[in-house]
Amino acid sequence: MPRLADPMPGETLAVAVRVKPGASRARVGGRFDGPHGPALVIAVNAPAVDGRATEAARRALAGALGVRPAAVSLRTGAASRDKLFDVEHPDSGLVEVLRRLRDGSDR
């Protein structure tokens, strides 16, 4: 299983995400073992049409990590539920925030 490591200053942090479009309640949290490794689950209200779910997931990820939406960009997976997002210029605590969201606070 890949281990999250703190990125070096100026680098990007790749975040694997599993998007659940059309959810009755938007939520960020949980784990899905997908094609990009352990992924953070993001449920969004937006439908999987014309990139709306991807955009909603990008914004939800930014909000959950406490970064500007402009700092989060899609690397791969535009037409898939399994996506890789890049977070530009992550600070040292971001990896721990991501770990808590994905794996829970007890790990």
Segments where pLDDT lies below 50 for 5+ residues?
none
Distance between the termini: 15 Å
Please work out how many helical segments DSSP would assign: 2
Strand content of the residues, in percent?
A: 25-35%
Number of strands: 5
Instruction: Tell me the overall shape.
Output: globular
Radius of gyration: 13 Å
Tell me the structural class: alpha+beta
Order of helices and strands: EEEHEEH
What share of the residues lie within helices? 10-25%
Determine the mean pLDDT.
90
General description of the model:
- The protein is an alpha+beta fold and 107 residues long.
- It is built from two helices and five strands.
- The protein has helices spanning 52-65, 94-103, and strands spanning 12-20, 27-34, 37-43, 72-76, 82-88.
- The chain has a five-stranded mixed beta sheet.
- A hairpin with a 5-residue loop joins strand 4 and strand 5.
- It is globular, with a radius of gyration of 13 Å.
- It starts with 11 loop residues before the first strand and ends with a helix.
